[in-house]
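Whether sequence alone determines local backbone shape is best considered at the level of individual chains. The sequence in question and its structure tokens are set out directly beneath this paragraph.

***
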Amino acid sequence: MTSSAPSPGLPAQKESSSASQSLLACDTHAVGTWAYNDQAGVQHNGMNMQVQVRDLRTGALIAGLTNSAGRYDICFTAAQFTQLYITFAAENGAWRVQNGTNIYNWSTPVRANPVAGSTVNFGTQVPGDGTAGHRAAHAFDEANDAWVGVPHSNSCWDPKDTTCRQLRINWSNTATGETDFYDQVGNVVQLLAPTPDAPMEVMHEIGHALMDDVFNDAFPSTVGCPRPHPVHLASTTVCAWIEGWADFFSLAMNHTPVFTFLGGGTIDFEIPSWGFSSVANGDVTEQRVAGALWDLIDINSGGSETWDQHSEGFGAVFFTLAHHVDNTLASFWSNRGTDGFDVSDASLGSLYQNTIDYGYRRPLLDGRGQFLPTFTSPTPPQNFSLNTAVQSWSVVALRPSNPNDFDLDLYDDRAQTRFLNGSALNDQAVDFVAIDSNLRPVGDYYPRVVQFRGPGTYTIESVMGFTTLQPGSSTSFHLDDSQVAAVQDTPLTAGVPVTITLTTTSPISVAGLFVMGDDPSNPATFVQRRSTAVASAVGSNSGGQPVSVTFTPPRTGEYGIVVTFDNVGGDYTLTRS
């Protein structure tokens, strides 16, 4: 992995060269590559490993770090390194891997009397102590991946620190126990013997250490968060946040939504959404919190990602984590808004995708139908937002898929406490609510879809009336299968009969025609449901047969002509005579 992260530097005691005598200007180079083998036997070059050029006789020492390709090139004075060897130490300024108090290290054989001005190539070196050494080196490299993945504004893990905390990973090839854990008292990641063979589990524990570091040891209480803890079960909001963050951190650093455990078992955090009975809902569940954070940063790929339409990268999430002490996802979300990051419906959908509803209202855009699912019981209402922008009639319409039935309510406020009107017809009829913005100020509205019989799917759409059907005229329009309704204004005069006719060229279209009116003296009538239409007709339109209504308007004013489509779109014409 290449890196734009700053160098972690050398440990404090290795920052300057040391020897039994002052080191002279260098004239010779020691070069080579550091590598290790993973659990599958695949070799990886190791980055930021400490490389010590040492002399067996005098104790002279010059240290450096491997680069992003695992290579090193250290200049020394041949006259002072006559018994030359290399030691690779699993420690730099930012992290180390230890067994108790001992830093893991590996040394090469001695190269005697290097020729001044030459390059001494040690080739590719790997741990010489078998599986144990490779595991220790692998754990070290996981910390390096975390270092590369975390944004840096300084040379510390915590961007607020002036004195950096070194990440410590304690590992032994004989370590046993029930589970890995992060020791909050000693500030040490404790790993079991085989855990380096499961790099995502190592990264999970590093995630805990990082949270503790940026929280300045104010780690949330782990009461009610036993070890081990099934990721799919409900616990507490605090436990779900602690463990969900660590899961997410491992996903983010490994650039995958699929967590792989020791032994090869996996969990795909991308898949579960509403209706997954095997995973508990809400921000009390670790898997939901981790999935929500992942959906914030991932690139939406469509398909099952119905509600998640947001992608921002890891840096924004880490900034809020690093600059506040949050004990729950809800607290983190509040501080995220304080930090100036997106907490609108655009990002709330990422949480809702994972059954965490912090007031999500899915936006409805004019004339764009949305085909959406509901889920196995219990199914919560699904909430939306729309804005009227023109002084005309508008409509929000809902078409269920057979054999389901859904009801539609419309509210005046985001909290959905001020009910305006609703439509609750039986079976597969299109429900709609019409808004007269000729009389009611344009602005925001909040529809709610409630499942009456399901689960299943439905299509919802909001439409504004941008055209007016004048006396003796006709208008034509096309609607595709994703659309549910159309609306137009028409000015009518009290007591003057009028006929409105809808025709279509589609032989299979089932459409409805409705005329909506209201009382200018009664604001409560400015929002109307389907069943309060002043005139209506529904027909099969088979072979282009028209649907028509004739009526005498009781009042003079702008009336709304609403057309609903019960099955497919097509080409339509409205005529007024």
Notes: The two ends are 73 Å apart (CA to CA). The longest strand covers residues 28-37. The longest helix spans residues 130-149.
